[in-house]
């Protein structure tokens, strides 16, 4: 019974975020998929509690390279790269900032973890 209820809640979350999916795909054409994801991620990060987590996961299941339905994404978390991969039972704590990451199965991130992506993340071309 519990798996069926979770599946229904996930379907409802997908229906609720469908307008954001439309704006994401339109913005992706205009400003690029990563910029659009970052903007939508900021908006979705403000929804608290388990409701917010279900809505974020529903959105990221469509917009990221991979996001398992069993992922938990807490309040205040921002994602910036559509190539990110969040595998089964990954837990992303509150206020995390993630770039181009792969979170393997059963990974737990505590609060305020930052994982940027790329060698030019901070814009330093010359270190001397």
What does this structure look like?
This protein is an alpha/beta fold. It contains 3 helices and 9 strands. It has a 3-stranded parallel β-sheet. The longest helix has 30 residues, at 2-31. The model has no long low-confidence stretch (mean pLDDT 93).
Spell out the helices and strands N to C.
HHHEEEEEEEEE
Radius of gyration: 15 Å
The helicity comes to: 40-55%
Structural class: alpha/beta
Stretches with pLDDT under 50, minimum 5 residues: none
Mean pLDDT: 93
Beta-strand residue fraction: 5-15%
Please give the count of helices. 3
**Count of DSSP E strands?**
9
Overall shape: it is: globular
- Taking the alpha carbons of the first and last residues, their distance comes to 62 Å
Summarize the structure.
With 128 residues, the chain is an alpha/beta fold. It has helices spanning 2-31, 33-44, 49-63; strands at 66-67, 72-73, 78-79, 85-86, 91-92, 97-98, 102-103, 108-109, 114-115.
Main attributes of the structure:
three-stranded parallel beta sheet, 45% helix, alpha/beta, 14% strand, 128 residues
Topology:
Elements: H1 2-31, H2 33-44, H3 49-63, E1 66-67, E2 72-73, E3 78-79, E4 85-86, E5 91-92, E6 97-98, E7 102-103, E8 108-109, E9 114-115
Parallel strand pairs: 1-4, 2-5, 3-6, 4-7, 5-8, 6-9
Helix pairs in contact: 1-2, 1-3
């Amino acid at each position: 019974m519990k798996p069926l209820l979770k599946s229904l809640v996930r379907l409802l979350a997908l229906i609720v975020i469908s307008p954001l999916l439309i704006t994401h795909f339109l913005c992706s054409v205009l400003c690029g998929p990563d910029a659009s994801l970052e903007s939508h991620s900021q908006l979705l990060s403000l929804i608290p509690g388990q409701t917010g987590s279900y809505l974020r996961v529903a959105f990221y299941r469509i917009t990221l390279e991979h996001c398992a339905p069993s992922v938990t994404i807490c309040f205040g978390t921002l994602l910036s790269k559509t190539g990110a991969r969040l595998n089964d039972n990954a837990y992303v704590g509150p206020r995390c900032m993630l770039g181009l990451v792969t979170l393997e199965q059963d990974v737990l991130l505590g609060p305020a973890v930052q994982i940027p992506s790329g060698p030019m993340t901070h814009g330093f071309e010359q270190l001397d």
